[in-house]
Each structure stands twice: as C-alpha cells, then as structure tokens.
TrEMBL record:
InterPro entries: Arylamine_N-AcTrfase, Papain-like_cys_pep_sf. It comes from the Bacteria. PANTHER family: ARYLAMINE N-ACETYLTRANSFERASE 4-RELATED, N-HYDROXYARYLAMINE O-ACETYLTRANSFERASE. This is Arylamine N-acetyltransferase. Belongs to the arylamine N-acetyltransferase family.
Length: 296
C-alpha cells in the first residue's frame, strides 16, 4: 500500500488532484492517463543504471517524473490501484515478438482488476506496461475491441491452459501477449527475468534506446533516432538527427525529460545514440553496395 504522500504524488503525475472513490469510470480514467503520460522505456538499462522492480522503487519512479518498463509500470500501477481500493491480481505473462513462439515465460507482469457490472462479477485486463497497447482496460471476455484507430482481440491462450491471449493490432511490431490464469502473490517470481533484462549482456535492451507511448489516437515509438508514429492513416517514420529536436521530441511526445540525468549525461546519451545510428546507416550503405556489385 502507498502512503498518502505517495498516492497524491502519483495521482498528480497522472493529472488528478486527489483520490476518488473506486469506480469503473475512475479506473478507466487512470489507465488512459497512465499510458498517455508515462512512457515505456529502456533508458535506465541502456545507461547501465537499472532500477530494481521492488514496488517501492517502482512507485518512486512514477512519483519523481521518471518511468520504466513493464515490471516497473504495471508493478507501480497495481500498488496505486490497491491503495485506491481496487481488487488487483498479478499474472505471469509473456510477449510474443514477430518470428518467435508464443509462451508464458514470466518476462511480462500481467494485471487484472475485478469490477462488477450489469452481468455480474467481471475482471478487466489492465496493462500500462506494454508501451503501446491497450489504451483502456479490456473486459476479460473473448472478442474484438476497437480502441481509437486500433483493434485488439482477446481470445483463449493456446499455450496457457485456462489463460487468455491479447492480440496486438496487426499494424505493429509484436504479435500478442499470453497470460496465465492463476494469480500470483509474490513478485519474486519475476526477479530473475528483471535481472536478465536489466543486467545480462544477452538482454535485448542493454544496447537499445527505446521509448514507447500510447495516446488515444496514435502509438509512438522512438528507437534510437528513428521515430515511428502509427495512427488511422498508417505509420509515419521520421529520422531525428539533431540533439535539440531529439530531446524536444522525447519531452513533448513521450513525456521523457531525463530528470535523473545531468546535462553532461544527457549529452553522453545522445552521443551514443547518434553513433549507433550512424554505424547502422553505414552498415546499410555497405550492404547495399555489396549487393549492387553482385552479378545478376
């Protein structure tokens, strides 16, 4: 449970002046505000300054103008919701990237919240830890759910008996997420996975600057210097190769202002990102030149 000071600071970050009685409308408003205002990011892993996934540390990120990735975002949000009086459950889950097999591998922390409606008791899939889906809670009832210009599908999981699968909109970069049905009571189950993501040289995030944000009408991703924005018209890709433009984009679109980093550290992060981008461009040019020299 959060202290009143922590809860008030968290709610202010989300744009609320104070706590309200737990209602379905307030739950939806909190979820929308969280994914709009607090991005999913790998910055602290990228810079070699990972934050533990202990609930107190995760909440501290949210209350101090910072963010994290799924374990931090969903962990902190679950603590806020419980403090506000919601019935929250943690679930083992796994994200399926394109080209990989589906699985519940505990590399994602899933949430559900129980809320009665006209049909009786119902649970909602809650997830502010994916960076780009969903915008609002989704009823734990199989079907298709349009949200703005994107459509998600909830269906039975083929890899977790009795579990469910949330399919991503087909226009984006991973396929879906599978959830195990049984609640878990201890986040220690996820600690080895967090250690892998945040400390292992085999982690996909160690050398990848990546920030994601979901709004009502768009999804945004900044991967190094490449900004992709998905909306009803499709995907727009923009190269951002000036430090001032890059930092302004992070602040204005993603809400990321590097509050835990000094000016020199911000400059160092940008220099590393730009070098990686230039190395990537050079490799592509060399590859194109090699292919052009091959006989037809």
């Amino acid at each position: 449970m959060l202290t009143s000071t922590e809860a008030d600071a968290y709610l202010r970050r989300l744009g609320f002046e104070g706590a309200e009685a737990p209602t379905k409308d307030f739950l939806f408003a909190l979820h929308r505000a969280h994914v709009e205002r607090i991005p999913w990011q790998t910055i602290d892993i990228y810079t070699g300054r990972p934050v533990s996934m202990a609930l107190r540390d995760s909440v501290g990120l949210m209350t101090n103008g910072r963010s994290g990735y799924c374990f931090h975002l969903n962990g902190a949000f679950s603590a806020l919701l419980r403090t506000l009086g919601y019935d929250v459950a943690w679930h083992r889950a796994g994200v399926q990237p394109i080209g990989r097999e589906a699985g519940v591998n505990n590399f994602h922390l899933g949430l559900t919240v129980a809320w009665p409606d006209d049909e009786g008791a119902r649970r909602y899939v809650i997830d502010v830890g994916l960076g780009d889906m969903p915008f609002e809670p989704i009823p734990l009832a199989y079907g298709r759910y349009p949200q703005g210009p994107f459509t998600y599908e909830l269906k039975p999981s083929a890899v977790a008996e009795g579990g469910w699968r949330l399919e991503h909109d087909p226009h984006h970069g991973y396929i879906g997420v599978d959830f195990a049905p049984e609640p878990v009571s201890d986040l220690a189950l996820f600690h080895p996975n967090h250690a892998h993501y945040s400390q292992s040289p085999d982690s996909p995030w160690m050398n990848q600057f990546l920030v994601r944000q979901r709004g009502e009408r768009a999804m945004n991703e900044l991967r190094g210097c490449v900004w992709k924005a998905w909306d009803a018209d499709g995907c727009t890709t923009t190269l951002v190769e000036k430090k001032e433009d890059w930092q302004a984009l992070l602040a204005d679109v993603f809400g990321e202002r590097f509050v835990a980093y000094t000016d020199d550290e911000r400059d160092s992060i940008w220099a590393r990102v730009l070098k990686q981008h230039e190395d990537w461009k050079r490799e592509r040019e060399e590859m194109s030149g090699t292919n052009a020299e091959k006989p037809a």
